[in-house]
């Protein structure tokens, strides 16, 4: 195995995946608490999917970030036939409840090889690592707790989330922020060719990385998996 000096990883559908019961419970919560028009469970689930797809496309196009709070308000408005009276919505309570649903229905490792590969990279003593992730309904502050629970955190040197820095992949500024955070005392004279970003999204991950001139590897949405990193060469 030939090691890069720094490995950047996407999170969702690269290292972790959603617990199916999480989305079901999230819909149930809005069905119970914000459903004055008596929409069905299926209608609310469709609204979540529509907002998720729309905001993801907006973030990737604009390179900025629509926050989870804003997404939840969109959901509340849409399932109540575009009622914009949010006076009874306590965003702090909503945030706490949404985080608790995540913890009750914890995301899962994308595959059993994820920790093996991360351990191999870290054990080499030659490489540093980071997570570079766009966020949606789940905030970066929550995801940090998730990756500790899943055992990923011990292998990661730093984490960057779009909701915390107001930028989303493929924004070159987000990738540059990642490059700027790499420990240059460990990697003096670091070159762009020494860095690789790994993710599942051809646009956000691969084109974003390549636009900045760093290496990239598409996994999981094609025939490659994280195991291919063990056979990749600089």
From TrEMBL:
Under Pfam families, the record lists: HAD_2
* Protein's UniProt keywords contain Membrane: no
Entry-linked SUPFAM superfamilies: HAD-like
- Does this UniProt record's set of keywords contain Hydrolase? yes
Kindly state which keywords UniProt assigns to this record, in alphabetical order.
Hydrolase
Transmembrane region(s): none
Under the heading InterPro entries, the entry gives: HAD-like_hydrolase_domain (IPR051828), HAD-like_sf (IPR036412), HAD_2 (IPR041492), HAD_sf (IPR023214)
User: One GO molecular-function annotation for this sequence?
Assistant: hydrolase activity
The record's listing under PANTHER family reads: HALOACID DEHALOGENASE-LIKE HYDROLASE DOMAIN-CONTAINING PROTEIN 3 (PTHR46191:SF2), PTHR46191
Q: What is this protein called?
A: Putative hydrolase of the HAD superfamily
Organism per entry: Pedobacter terrae
User: Which lineage?
Assistant: Bacteria, Pseudomonadati, Bacteroidota, Sphingobacteriia, Sphingobacteriales
